[in-house]
Amino acid sequence: MTSRGTGRRMNSRTGVARPTSGAAERLMASPAPPAPVMDTVLVTVSLLDVWIHDVGTHHPRELACALLATSALVLRRRLPLPTFLLTLPTALFTDAVFATLVALYTLASRTHHRVLLAVCAVGFAVCDLTWWSWPSPEFADLSDRQALIPVSYSLAQATAPLFLGQLVQARRELSLRLVEVSEAREHERLLLAQGVLARERAQLAREMHDAVSHQVSLIAVRAGALQVGSRDPEAKEAAATIRLLSVQTLDELRHMVGILRASGSRPTELTPQPSLADLDRLVTGSGIETDLRTELPADLPPPVQRAVYRTVQEALTNIRKHAPGATATIRIRHQDGTVRATVTNTAPGRPALSLPGAHHGLIGLRQRAELLGGTVTSGHLGNGGYELRLELPVNGTH
Question: Could you report the per-residue pLDDT of 334-363, keeping only the tens digit for each?
């Protein structure tokens, strides 16, 4: 049996393996670099395959088929089936089959249609085994046992990129499935954590409702009774203040309990977020004679506004507890990029009652101020009063 053209290497029907097939399989099995680089490499190797097999020296038709197959490789990702069909003539007319093998591999790595892949593999094997001498083609003599060797080789050469492409496709899909499983497990852990948080919040809500709300309600009821039954104006005023503060506290507790029971709420919704607009209501409800003066812009960052509000709130609470009958002066101003809040009270007008406390109020204020880059200072005054000062930088506070 002769070769397909003068000066060309013997084809697979001689039993000699084409040197490009093993290189093609190794190239296709290697990790894929970026698409433009990979296309350049494949086109270059395909041209080298054409040059090695001396395609087109005496047959321009064969050269045209080989160059068409090489050029079609740049379309293999977007149009894998048309690319394979464009590379098939080079397997029919020449020994330069690298482009056809690459196209078959790409098609196998991008489709699940097994019947189509089998037909394409058989088509490549038939083209590889067929001698095409225009106008009459010659076919391999299958009755000769020696002919079974090239037939087996052609079938193996056709199925190798097929199986390799399917393997790459399965690996890619397995990677996607692993990512999906990982995301599902992460979501499951998140749901579990949310469930634990919801149970803890529900338990906390029950405790707040059963214990704290009940006791505050009793305070409000007793204060109301004292307000109605007392004939002392100061006692009636104090009872009214206690009752008002108790009712406000109950409202806040109910709001917090409702939010704690809503397991789907966001963390930012857990507590009401006061601002400087609430200062007047805070001072009015404190029951303390207070002189409030503020000189602040309207666009202060929310953390600064909350820090100022909590500072004034804590100062008024301490005045009620430790300096009954005292008057308070509150000065809040913004100057040189710093907010300064000062709460000063006079000496107590009557002895303070012994009230329980955790003594953590000022510590919490200092920690809040330090987080915002500010300071909190406090101390007794010479006239028996007390002063609490807050300084917070505004620039850079979010």
Answer: 988 899 999 999 998 887 655 555 456 788
Q: What pTM does this model have?
A: 0.41
Give the three-class secondary structure for 107: helix
* φ, ψ (nearest 5 deg) of residue 58: -120, -5
In a domain, 345, yes or no: yes
Distance CA 7, CA 15 (A): 18
Shared domain check, 289 and 143: no
Beta partners for 380? 386
Residues in the chain: 398
Distance CA 308, CA 294 (A): 11
Cα 189–chain centre separation: 15
Q: Specify whether 279 is located in the same domain as 170.
A: no
Number of domains in the chain: 2
- pLDDT score, position 262: 65
- Residues 216-257 have pLDDT tens digits of 777 877 887 888 888 888 888 888 888 788 777 777 777 777
